[in-house]
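chain below, 192 aa
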Amino acid sequence: MDEELAALLAGVIGLAGAVLGAAVGGLASYRAAKHSAEVAARALAAQVAGQARYEQEQWVRQERRQVYGDINRAYAELAAALAALHSALDGRGPVQELAERVEERRLQLSVAVSPTAMLGPVEVHDAARALIGATDAFVEAYRELAVLPQAREPVQLDTVRERVAGHRADVHACLSNFSAACRNVLLRQGDS
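prediction:
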């Protein structure tokens, strides 16, 4: 009977060992699965956050390109209107309609610049505001030039022409600074 008891005891111990081994193995598997799931969830969250950041950067870059292009187009339209006004002034032709077109284009340029406050960065917004200031002074000098020939004051006319030339140089410098700021921002974004 001792053999039977020993066999039974060995069977119970074996069963207990198997149950205990299964429990320990199951617990280890559960913890490993839980850890793997947490790691996968964190990796997925990081991937989603990275993708969201990338998509936002792409959107901002696209919007900035659009705004910067709109400003350049608005400036080109203003420059064309100013060139037409300049030609009319040289030919002593009627200038009222052309002066109104210049004013419309100047306002369009101001409107085109306003989104730079939101999309930035500050260096582009500051350059755009400087361009607006220089353009406003340039257009104002042209307004004087349009009015003075009627007053027939040659000395004053030469002074205003010099002022127009100086403001033209200021506008070109501001446009160059604006373009450089835009280029720097867009190229810097492309690296990120």
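The helical segments are 2-90, 96-113, 116-119, 122-151, 154-191. Residues 57 and 192 are 9 Å apart (CA to CA).
thats it, cya
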